[in-house]
């Protein structure tokens, strides 16, 4: 079986790697090629273009990268269609991958989409656009299904693979605070300096002995170190690498910490499943934020809060995010970590049973048969 795959960030790379492993169990002669990261490469995927090439976030931020992104799109589309795969599996990155889906659809190559956009939250009209070029949508959470069925697109809830990978919450073993600024360079540029300054003050006030920074596989550790060396946190931060895409060391560092300061995204769910209390942060350009807030229906941004339908993890977003507000929120969580830990245990139950990657593999194989 020959499969084209496209994944454009650390979380999508992890999802793709788990899916490749399950597909290979069912089809040992599996051949996978396209765009991915180190985790997918470790599962035997032939990487034509690296996942880091899609590391851009924000409505306005994307504009200056459009020429490069379109060149990337055309290259992947031309090579992907010419390879005549049995199936195309596109993971997340909706604004990019839906355009890629059109090329495969026109070539009569069936398309499975893994992790669709949040049409249940904002820009619901996108669902019909996806329905025209995608044959099956694989979603992570049950509440996503109705929006896709209303658009006429066959959808299946496979669950979240993190529930398989992180089977229980762990007890902190070190007096550390974990800093997770995001997996994209643009996210690091907006968040890292602020997180380091707040983290350094928390250490200096005795709330932690050290800071740990788990390095996403899509980021360059040497560049992160340069930023650390120029910050108030110089000498206080331990970088934690992920050799060969292995998330174990990074997760162990978070699980061993008493608190995590985490950029909104899949990492918020990962931290929550590890049982580590956290504060969620996020910032984009002012114009991107202004547009986004007028298009969204959500009261919360972090996945733990979305799953529970209420605020169980503090969120500091856009103008509400500052060094001072982050320190204050961190101190409040540290003063009573057990309350958030209890809520996180309830969230795990809401997320449901494991087996997500196996269900995803079954779904795409049914489509490709």
Key structural traits:
single chain; 369 residues; alpha/beta; Rossmann fold; 2 domains; seven-stranded parallel sheet; 16 helices
How are the elements arranged and paired?
Layout: E1 2-7, H1 10-26, E2 31-36, H2 38-42, E3 46-50, H3 66-82, E4 87-91, H4 94-106, E5 111-114, H5 126-133, E6 136-139, H6 145-150, E7 155-157, H7 162-165, E8 176-180, H8 185-204, E9 210-214, H9 221-229, E10 237-240, H10 248-255, E11 259-263, H11 266-273, E12 278-282, H12 286-295, H13 303-308, E13 315-317, H14 323-335, H15 337-351, H16 356-368
Parallel strand pairs: 1-2, 1-4, 2-3, 4-5, 5-6, 6-7, 8-9, 8-11, 9-10, 11-12, 12-13
Describe the 3D structure:
With 369 residues, the chain is of the alpha/beta class. It folds into two domains: 2-159 and 354-368, Glycogen Phosphorylase B (Rossmann fold); 165-351, Rossmann fold (3-Layer(aba) Sandwich). Helices cover 47% and strands 16% of the residues. It contains 16 helices and 13 strands. The protein has helices at residues 10-26, 38-42, 66-82, 94-106, 126-133, 145-150, 162-165, 185-204, 221-229, 248-255, 266-273, 286-295, 303-308, 323-335, 337-351, 356-368, and strands at residues 2-7, 31-36, 46-50, 87-91, 111-114, 136-139, 155-157, 176-180, 210-214, 237-240, 259-263, 278-282, 315-317. The chain has a seven-stranded parallel sheet, with helices on both faces. The chain has a six-stranded parallel sheet with strand order 10-9-8-11-12-13, with helices on both faces. Strand 6, helix 6 and strand 7 (155-157) form a beta-alpha-beta unit. Helix 1 (10-26) packs across helix 16 (356-368), helix 3 (66-82) packs parallel to helix 4 (94-106) and helix 4 runs parallel beside helix 5 (126-133). The mean pLDDT is 89.
């Amino acid at each position: 079986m020959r499969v084209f795959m496209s994944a454009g960030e650390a979380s999508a790379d992890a999802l793709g790697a788990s899916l490749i492993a399950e597909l290979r169990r069912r089809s040992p002669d599996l051949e996978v090629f396209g765009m991915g990261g180190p985790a997918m490469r470790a599962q035997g995927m032939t990487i034509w273009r690296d996942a880091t090439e899609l590391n851009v976030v924000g409505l306005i931020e994307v504009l200056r990268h459009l020429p490069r992104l379109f060149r990337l799109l055309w290259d992947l589309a031309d090579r992907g269609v010419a390879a005549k795969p049995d199936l195309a599996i596109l993971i997340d990155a909706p604004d990019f991958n839906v355009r890629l889906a059109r090329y495969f659809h026109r070539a009569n190559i069936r398309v499975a989409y893994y992790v669709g956009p949040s049409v249940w939250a904002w820009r619901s009209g996108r669902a019909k656009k996806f329905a025209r070029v995608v044959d099956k949508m694989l979603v992570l959470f049950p509440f996503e299904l109705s929006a896709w069925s209303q658009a006429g697109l066959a959808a299946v809830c496979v669950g979240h693979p993190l529930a398989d990978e992180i089977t229980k919450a762990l007890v902190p073993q070190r007096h550390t605070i974990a800093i997770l600024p995001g997996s994209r360079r643009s996210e690091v540029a907006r968040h890292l300096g602020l997180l380091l300054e707040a983290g350094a003050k928390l250490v200096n006030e005795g709330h932690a002995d050290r800071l740990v920074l788990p390095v996403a596989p899509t980021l360059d550790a040497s560049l992160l170190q340069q930023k650390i060396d120029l910050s108030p946190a110089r000498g206080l931060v331990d970088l934690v690498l992920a050799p060969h895409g292995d998330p174990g060391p990074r997760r162990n560092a978070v699980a061993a910490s008493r608190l995590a300061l985490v950029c909104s995204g899949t990492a918020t769910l990962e931290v929550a499943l590890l049982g580590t209390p956290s504060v969620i942060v996020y910032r984009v350009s002012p114009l991107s934020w202004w547009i986004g807030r007028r298009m969204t229906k959500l009261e919360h941004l972090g996945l733990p809060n979305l799953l529970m339908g209420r605020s169980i993890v503090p969120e500091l977003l856009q103008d509400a995010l500052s060094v001072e507000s982050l320190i204050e929120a961190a101190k409040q969580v540290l003063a009573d970590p057990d309350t958030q830990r209890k809520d996180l245990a309830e969230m795990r139950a809401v997320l449901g049973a494991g087996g997500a990657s196996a269900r995803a593999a079954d779904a795409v194989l049914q489509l490709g048969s």
